[in-house]
UniProtKB/TrEMBL annotation:
Identification of the protein by name: Cytochrome P450
GO-annotated molecular function: heme binding; iron ion binding; monooxygenase activity; oxidoreductase activity, acting on paired donors, with incorporation or reduction of molecular oxygen
Keyword Glycoprotein on entry: no
Pfam families: p450
Cofactor(s) annotated in UniProt: heme
Presence of the UniProt keyword Oxidoreductase in the record: yes
Family: Belongs to the cytochrome P450 family.
Keywords linked to the UniProt accession: Heme, Iron, Metal-binding, Monooxygenase, Oxidoreductase
Annotated organism of origin: Dendroctonus ponderosae (Mountain pine beetle)
Length: 373
């Protein structure tokens, strides 16, 4: 019995080592920083564009070697061969929550859904309907910041709750109020917890493997919080379907979920599970990235008093000096040119999503190098 188990383990290890060696041979033409045995470059995240011409070989522990790049020519090469480029395998960590949504799907499925959803959300008047929500939630945000007892605060945490409140109101017409009642919002707490689990899986060697992850406390925590998220969305989608049966498409102000229910992909509307996947995908994509961007904008404004003064001057000019009772409209937002420049400059200085992972689905030829996989 023990001999049989020993043989199985030995064969698995031999296959794993051979597999890694084959990939190494494919990538050996690319330069790499000094490597630590077994651990690889886990302690050495090098900026690839500084010392290695923009493309380097990278090892993070005993996993598959990969390429890290910030090289424009190499990125253009990948874009030209997008047909053979899929999502990195670590995107599977998102699937228990996001299902087969835009962030996790590939190929024709991703393309058809992206086209349908994009055309639906970019139609005239969609954002115009949400300006009132933006203003209402922004007033709550200002009150929350004014009520802070200390001159220092975790603005990012506040912004995450604010962003989630805005998203839920515009996407599903659900008043979450997690900003004002953070301890009572099970949905917000569950989303934060699931995001933590995903981050833990990405930074843990053992939890990288589904077999070991299923025995961890993080797996139990993920299942518990996903039940809360799915339960809430199930009730909302069920209520939306009932509302549509009663009034059809006659609703004047449509939220994101209404628009998703009208989407036609190859002659079919989205099922309840597909709706949940896309709502969760939009939540994940906008929740942390938007709050990070807004936090960094506030940081840069606080660090640059002269910029603050110019922003205030612009607001005073737009609202004729009457800021206390000012009401924002869609047209007024387009007049805030200097604020728009401040936001864009912040995004230039700070990368909100520093890297993304891609995977080649077939051998590709890059320059004079041999085929790489």
């Amino acid at each position: 019995m023990y001999f049989f188990l020993f043989c199985i383990v030995t064969l698995v290890l031999m296959w794993f080592i051979t597999h890694l060696h084959n990939i190494y041979n494919h990538l050996k033409e690319f330069p790499a920083p000094p490597i630590v045995p077994v651990l690889g470059h886990v302690f050495d995240y090098v900026d690839p564009k500084i010392n290695h011409g923009g493309v380097i070989r990278q090892y993070i522990g005993p996993r598959k070697p990969s390429l890290a790049t910030a090289n424009r020519d190499f990125l253009q090469f990948l874009c030209r061969h997008s047909k053979y480029i899929g999502k990195a395998k670590y995107y599977r960590y998102l699937k228990p929550w996001l299902g087969e949504g835009l962030l996790t799907s590939d190929g024709h499925q991703w393309l058809s859904r992206r086209k349908a959803l994009t055309s639906s959300f970019t139609q005239s008047g969609v954002l115009r309907n949400f300006v009132g929500v933006f203003e209402e939630k922004s007033d709550q945000l200002i009150k929350e910041i004014n009520d802070l007892s200390s001159d220092k605060a975790n603005v990012h945490l506040i912004m995450k709750r604010f962003t989630l409140d805005v998203f839920c109101e515009t996407a599903m017409r659900v008043s979450l109020s997690s900003l004002a009642n953070s301890a009572d919002s099970n949905y917000a707490i569950s989303i934060e917890s699931v995001c933590e689990v995903i981050q833990n899986r990405m930074t843990s060697f053992m939890k990288n493997f589904d077999f070991f992850f299923q025995f961890s406390s993080d797996c139990t925590r993920e299942k518990k919080n996903l039940a809360v998220i799915d339960g809430m969305l199930h009730k909302i989608i069920k209520a939306k379907h009932q509302e549509r049966r009663q009034i059809g498409n006659a609703k004047e102000r449509k939220d994101m979920l209404d628009l998703m229910m009208e989407v036609d992909i190859e002659g079919k509307t989205l099922s309840s599970s597909e709706l949940r996947a896309h709502v969760n995908s939009f939540t994940f994509a906008g929740y942390d990235t938007t709050s990070s961007a807004m936090s960094l904008v506030l940081y840069e404004i606080a660090e640059n008093p002269s910029i603050q003064e110019k922003l205030l001057e612009e607001q005073m000019q737009i609202f004729s000096g009457k800021l206390n009772n000012a009401s924002v409209t869609y047209e007024i937002l387009h007049k805030m040119a200097y604020l728009d420049m401040v936001i864009k400059e912040t995004l230039r200085l700070h990368t909100i999503v520093p890297c993304i992972g891609k995977r080649a689905t077939k051998d590709l030829q890059y320059g004079n190098l041999p085929e790489l996989y």
